[in-house]
User: What shape does this take?
Amino acid sequence: MNQLMPENDTTKTVQESTSEVAAQKIRESIISGRLRPGDKLREADLCKWLKVSRTPVREAFRILQSEGFVTHNPNYGVMVATLGVDDVEHLYEIRSVLEQISVFDSTPHITQEQLDELKKINKTMSNFDEINPQKSCDLDLQFHTLIAQASQNQILIECLAGVYRKTSMVLQFIPFKKERIAQTCKEHADIISSMESRDSELAKKYMEIHFYKSTESLVKKAIAYNQLTHQSDQQ
Assistant: This one.
């Protein structure tokens, strides 16, 4: 009677690790802008770049597709996900809800040291760098990540980490503009003030207002970005 051979857990773990590393490198290239929406991802090129076989690359594609970073078209292959206006709006609707929970949970627990760090980040963000607008995007995510960490809600922190990765990609193509920074920092200051007063309900309300205005601004920029991209494709 033939017996099934036991699965080699070590081999499986190595393959999973290689796939995760491949996914991380591709993800970083998308977030940084080296790979742009609509770019085709060719297995052979990625295997050569990552120095891996096709199996980890294909698994990396599955990981990234589940996260929304890439899409698969049977007639075209795997490509970097495009910046759909509806997708941007849906992302920020989800983020708004999670951020409201985050600030509500964080307000009773946040330390003075963390509040001081939020003020420091917000002050640095107010000095908009026109040469490197991505810096403001990074600072904004640092601000909201610190609030999430203060919540002591690990499940929430993990959910937001995934949302922040997707947000980083979106903001790479439609970054902050100077005219929006001052208002963003004012909204951040209101959130900090309410947290400092230990008023969870008020902090949640200020966060809701912040994301209502952020979503409105971002959707307008996404529409303009897609119109510009469409015009470029026609030329």
